[in-house]
Amino acid sequence: MFQTINPVDNNVLKTYNFLSNQNINIKLSEAKNASHQWKNFPFDEKIKCLMKFCSYMQESADIIAYSITEEMGKPITQSYAEVNKSINLCKYYCKLKESIFTEVIYTEYKISCVRFESIGAILGIMPWNYPIWQTIRSTIPNLILGNVILIKPSLNTTGCSLILEKIFLKTGFPEGTFQVLLIDINQIESVIAHPEIKGITFTGSPSVGSIIGSLSGKYIKKSVLELGGNDAFVVLKDVEDIKKVAKLATESRLNNTGQTCISAKRFIVDKIIIDDFIDAVIQEMKTYHRGNLYDESTKIGYISRCDLSEKLYQQYKNIIINGGKICLEITKDGNFFTPSLLRIENDNCIVKKEEIFGPIGIISSFYKEEMIPDIVNDTPYGLGASIWTKNLEKAEEISKKIDTGMVFINEVVKSDPRFPFGGIKKSGYGRELSTLSIKEFSNWKTIIMKEL
């Protein structure tokens, strides 16, 4: 048994029961049956089901958005943005052609190609920070391919996942195509080990990702791991509008109350302009006020759980103990934190090694542009980075020396259905989004045909 908790007042929202092992096996059997049906659906029929799902998502936008806000403390405008982004992802995949599942290789044979075919049931172990978006971006590419999905949601956003399950059931997908597994931690290994599970996708911390990766290897299952980031926001001295760039840096850092893997966690700024940049960030941060989450003017919400709040506050204090200087002091009230900015100029291991998952900005300087790659790369993470400069040629050269899965120049790092999303090092492996994500959990079947 477990409960979902409202992070605003820590009141219980709802109580749920974990599935028994018998009921887990029933769901896995349903997934097997659904897989046999779904993979044989014509591609056009799959697209029709997905388009219908889009329609139902739009009709249910209010219910979904309010559930996100209630369960994880996100301002309602950001919850609606998450729903709309998920719908747009579905629309992107609806426009794809069946030809993406075949890659022709021109050789001496009559036919030589690779077909990307479904493999069966995929287990998705999902986070709480984007309970709809993360689930949709893992689910839809797999469904287009012909796989089926079993989602193990984060327990504190269970209601959001169950809403999605109801929508899938109304849409025309075979029963068992998309299922929610309410399972405890000690039940995960047996699910991964089950012969019907062909792959595992996980989004979460490196420590848990390491366990999931080990279990995937143990049972020889394909896996994709998205394990967070410590993204750098690099500002060169030639930027003309410091206030504009500082505003974008702040928006990136504070979006979703800072609980985003690709937010700008480290501002790395040329020493010549750092004081002006700090002033601009502070002024921008001061516009993020505590307010009613259902008021459209509210831009910042709550840390989603008490344990996460305590961890964040301890990280804040540890950074200061290790030499971090307060530019804008934090105020904590329960699960609510005011935005803060800390400046570091020393070898602060907390900042390098740990992901700060909350509204705390970290800023440091460089005095030679040759230093930038070493500063950016001096972290176990390698998800994304952004570079801000008028000199695009210089930015491109710097980007080649940065060890991340994504580099955005004069744009904040963001997830977009058109582009592959993922990182290297302790940020994980594999890619989500784009047509490449469809191939992650596919059988790459080589076909050679020669005339007798």
Give a written overview of the molecule:
This protein has two domains: 249 residues, Aldehyde Dehydrogenase, Chain A, domain 1 (3-Layer(aba) Sandwich), CATH 3.40.605; 185 residues, Aldehyde Dehydrogenase, Chain A, domain 2 (3-Layer(aba) Sandwich), CATH 3.40.309.10. By secondary structure, it is α/β, with parallel strands linked by helices. The chain is built from 15 helices and 22 strands. α2 crosses α6 and α3 packs antiparallel against α6. The model has no long low-confidence stretch (mean pLDDT 97). β13 and β14 form a beta hairpin. The strands form six sheets. Strands 12-15-16-11-10-18-19 form a seven-stranded mixed beta sheet, sandwiched between helices. Strands 7-6-5-8-9-21 form a six-stranded mixed beta sheet, with helices on both faces. Strands 3-4-22 form a three-stranded antiparallel beta sheet.
